[in-house]
Amino acid sequence: MTDANNTNRVQDGATVDPGTQTVSRKGVLKAGAAAVAGVAGLSALGRAGTAFASAPARATGATSVTLTMWSQDPLYVKFFKARAPEFSSLHPEYNITYNITQIPTANIFPKLLSTLAAGSGAPDIATLEINAFSTFEKGDLLAKGMVNLKPLIGNQYNDFLQQRWIPYSYKGAVYGVESGLSPSGLYYRQDILSKAGLKGPFATYDDLVTAGRLLKKKTGQAILLSPLVDIATFSQMFQQVGGHYFNANGELTLDDPKAVSLLTYLVNGHKEGIFYGLDDPYTPPAFAAYQQGKLASVLMPDWYGDQFLKLSVPNESGDWRIQALPTSALGGGNASCWGGTGIGVTKQSKHQLLAWEFLHYAYMTKANQIKRFQEIHYFPTMKAVLDDPAITGQVDPYYGGQKIGALYASVAPKVPVQYQSPYWNQVLYTGANSVGVEYNLAMLGKKSPSQAIKDAVAGAKKIMSQPV
Prior knowledge:
By secondary structure, this protein is of the alpha/beta class. The chain has helices at about 25-35, 45, 75-90, 105-120, 135, 140-145, 150-155, 190-195, 205-220, 230-240, 255-270, 285-290, 305-310, 350-365, 365-375, 390, 405-410, 425-430, 435-445, 450-465; strands at about 10, 15, 65-70, 95-100, 125-130, 170, 175, 175-180, 185-190, 225, 275, 295-300, 320-325, 340-345.
């Protein structure tokens, strides 16, 4: 890749990790001095657009500091806890206590919304899941409650894949550092396919249907989990062929013939019985179906493996494989994505500078981009490490010894951008005629795919006619 060999730079005569370049030492010292003097809002960084509330006052002895973090994902908790002692060793001037807490997805974002709106009770560091981000765009809550990280990221912005900054950006500011690329793949059970004389990977979605018919005829098993409620499979396929729910300007772009074609594909596969219908791939019915060998594959991003598959069906280690997505007759390549989480710093933090430094250390250094993949298998977003042997050479026994890093590296530059909108959550999930509602009606045979997309578009336009 273009920047794969530019893994180190020279600063003050020394070779350093590229992740140390975001803010000059002079800028950090200015911010710290201003905070100690009680005028943090006048710091150099504050004038650049990020007003730090304070940095811990430096005393002769070590200063005691507590950093709090909320996350919906237990793997983020695991990763940041592992980085905590390393970060503390870099800052002997502080005695840092870390309160890194997992809060269930259903609770964390309403809680964060309420604490940011109230002006108190928020953590130092918070996760902003990609689908929940739009709820924070309303009422300028991001600007009021979260630190704009863009001046701190500085030139290092270009060291990362651009498509993973955009989902956490709003009105020119950046409020989150991405937790992983979230590239999509087709997870498949080679042991099930072998019973019908089949073998992955599959080149095209048409090939998947052909294989599904043979599998059903010979074994009675389905080839693919096709969710009846969850829209992740449809959304990944839509983005793969160049579709988007919104464009770069936040305008609705769902009224697309490709959306109808893809929904028709999933509906027809379900009707024919070659796709297995369940509400979603995240809950016990899906895991029971895996255990019972009722289906052979599921289309999901990289995070699905460690967060769901390995935890729910550990006994199937060695049976699963992953491939890049089959290609579609509608165009596009073999890459897509779904999900992700930006992590940012709240303005309520009393130690914003130190919180940023911890976040930067964990997520924006070469060493820890690699560690994140090695420890929790969330693929890097830093260009310089995408083809690093520590990434591409890693073997995963759960997937039969497959080098999954090499697989994801092959599609990483082609992963599409996911454009945001303040209306995202309503249009996709909570609106009366949301994409989710209409998708479900089509999958259940209560509406044609074309009518479902038409009604989802009409519902979205109605939602978007209201002020943000």
